[in-house]
Specification:
The protein is of the alpha/beta class. It contains nine helices and 13 strands.
């Protein structure tokens, strides 16, 4: 029995639109299938997957404008428990187009609205009232324009007694490695991000595991997870390196795959399972 819902934070959510077209041809009007609309964004996707797996979460989601209202309606329709953070402007949108002829998927991500001091202050106020001592808190997804590069560190610092999982990218990820966040429980990244941080290719799972464990031993996080696409995930803590490979299936969409991994992982972590057991649950 989970004592407290897992907390997720999504500062730059998106109204995800997915459609299909027979073939992508430059310069032509392309007739698409009826679009599928879904709520999207790192932490929100984690909460959706947690619900699908039978767990409980509380999603803190920045909502803005008419697009944000529509996003909130979709979240409610799925039965995900959430609290809205009043965000600036309009919540962003994203578009995923699958080409029927090739099966290839094209993903277009629009930027989010610019954040100011008022929005940042609202996040800290809400975190202080919702984070629970010993509970798991997932900070996931891109950071919105206007927040400082060390914003995830400040968010984690506002939850000193929580077990914080950080899954971000770009400058925020680089900063989290360059200036480790005190007490960070888990840091997750993909393989390309790992190579950029390492400053060299990581051609094998073993090379990736060595890099991940070097981050742990440098104090970056207690556990580091690096996704290697179809090869699975590499996890390392102070004492062990683990490789997780999922069953081979036909890929229909890669949207939210990493978030689903995180959801299953934190659900297992929340009931104090061993790291290896968490890995098995996640794949």
């Amino acid at each position: 029995m989970i004592s407290h819902p897992i907390l997720t934070l999504t500062l730059n959510p998106a109204l995800d639109m997915a459609t299909e077209v027979a073939e992508i041809i430059p310069g032509h009007k392309l007739r698409c299938s009826e679009p599928q609309l879904d709520p999207g964004g790192g932490g929100l996707n984690v909460s959706r997957a947690i619900k699908a797996l039978g767990g409980e979460s509380l999603a803190l989601v920045a909502i803005g404008g008419l697009t944000g209202d529509r996003l909130a309606g979709l979240i409610r329709a799925e039965g995900v428990t959430f609290l809205a953070i009043l965000g600036p402007g309009e919540t962003r949108q994203s578009l995923t187009v699958t080409e029927g002829a090739s099966g290839k998927q094209y993903r277009f991500m629009l930027p989010g609205p610019l954040w100011g001091e008022a929005e940042r202050a609202r996040v800290f106020t809400l975190l202080r009232s919702t984070a629970r001592p010993g509970g798991l808190s997932v900070i996931s997804g891109s950071q919105p324009p206007g927040v400082p590069v060390d914003f995830p560190a400040a968010l984690a610092a506002s939850m000193p007694e929580s077990r914080v999982v950080l899954d971000t990218s770009g400058p925020a990820l680089t900063e989290a490695v360059r200036r480790p966040i005190r007490g960070l429980d888990v840091l997750r990244m993909d393989g390309e991000e790992g190579e950029a941080l390492a400053g060299r290719p990581l051609p094998s799972r073993e090379a990736t595991a060595e890099f991940a464990q070097s981050l742990v031993r440098a104090g970056v996080a207690r556990t580091v997870i690096v996704a290697r696409g179809a090869e699975g995930n590499v996890l390392a803590d102070q004492d062990q390196r683990l490789f997780a490979t999922a069953a081979k299936v036909q890929v229909r969409s890669t949207v939210g795959a990493g978030d689903s991994f995180v959801a299953a992982y934190v659900l297992a972590r929340d009931v104090q399972r061993l790291l290896a057991e968490c890995v098995v649950s996640a794949v």
